[in-house]
Automatic annotation (TrEMBL):
Pfam families: MerR_1. This is MerR family transcriptional regulator. Gene3D superfamilies: 1.10.1660.10. The lineage of its organism: Bacteria, Bacillati, Bacillota, Bacilli, Bacillales. Keywords: DNA-binding, Repressor, Transcription, Transcription regulation. It comes from the Bacteria.
Amino acid sequence: MPLTDGSFKHKKVISIGTVSELTGLTERQIRYYESRKLIFPERSKTGLRKFSFQDIETLIEIANRLEDGVWTNEIRKELKGREQFIAEAKLSNHLINGKINAQLKL
């Protein structure tokens, strides 16, 4: 069954070397962004960093924001705010769907 819901974007399966090639960032830059708590790769059993396609998009955005002169602490605040907004929107949608299902007795 093919993935159609975009869940593949969140699977952390991409190595730091591949991320570097795809983004044009050095591995050192990527590790720096991780140390500044801007990106959160998973670790394999052997300790290798694993990234998702969503992480790659975030890294590109971080690099662009830094190029525009935005400080890492400001980027961190922006990313946290976005994550909180998305989480609240998902919760709201879940509650609305629950109310609709209750009214329709589904």
